[in-house]
Amino acid sequence: MALSIGAKAPDFTLPSTSDKKFSLSKDMLGKAVIIYFYPKDFTGVCTAEACEFRDQFEAFRELDIPVFGISRDDIPTHEKFKKVHKLPFELLSDESGKVCKVYDALIPLIKMPKRITYLLDKDHKIAGVFSDMFESKGHIESMLRKLKR
Questions:
Q1: How big is the CA angle at 65 (ends 63 and 69), to the nearest 5 degrees?
Q2: What is residue 140's predicted lDDT score, i.e. its pLDDT?
Q3: Is the pLDDT of residue 100 over 90?
Q4: In DSSP terms, which residues pair with 71 in a beta bridge?
Q5: pLDDT of residue 2
Q6: Which of 14, 28, 46, 143 is catalytic?
Q7: What angle do CA 113, 131, 145 make, to 5 degrees?
Q8: Nearest alpha carbon to residue 40 among 104, 95, 3, 119
């Protein structure tokens, strides 16, 4: 079950493909943001989802909403994935799964991230959530609909 609409998003700091640590509270202070969790780089649905975010990236940029993808893959794998698919947004590495867990984005027994997308408002409260393990396009469409309201 996802975090509730209106709940404060847990703060976190993770390594990023930008070669620096990303801190939600510091780097996105006063900014709305999309954070999407996904199981694994270079897998079918995850690749489709990342490419859909890439293809719709301009719409998010026009709305001044940064996008960040999070999985348990390491930074070198994320860097390859980002380069191969020309992703214009940062990927964050949660190798321990701790951030996935606090965002209720971790499948308990197998410790693999769920496919779940959160829209955080300027105060980093959950403004929108979409969760579907087997569908990638709906995550992006859901967030764009929510943002355009």
A1: 145
A2: 72
A3: yes
A4: 93
A5: 78
A6: 46
A7: 135
A8: 95
In the residue annotation, 46 being an active-site residue is answered as: yes
- Please tell me the class of the 42-148 domain: alpha beta
SS3 126: strand
What is the spatial distance between Cα 56 and Cα 102, in angstroms, rounded to a whole number?
27
Residue where the block lists tokens 């980002």? 82
Q: Which residues of 98-110 are buried (b: 16+ CB within 10 A; e: fewer)?
A: ebbeebbbbeeee
- Angle of helix 44-55 versus helix 137-148 axis, rounded to 10: 30
In our burial notation (b when 16+ CB lie closer than 10 A, e otherwise), range 64-83 reads ebbbbbbbbbebebbbebbe
Is the model's pLDDT at 139 over the cut of 70?
no
More confident residue, 137 or 122: 122
Whole-angstrom distance, CA of residue 85 vs CA of residue 89: 11
Instruction: Give the start-to-end residue ranges of the domains of the chain.
Output: 42-148
pLDDT, one tens digit per residue, over 30-83 is: 999 999 999 999 999 999 999 999 999 999 999 999 999 999 999 999 999 999
Residue 5, token pair as written in the block? 């609409």
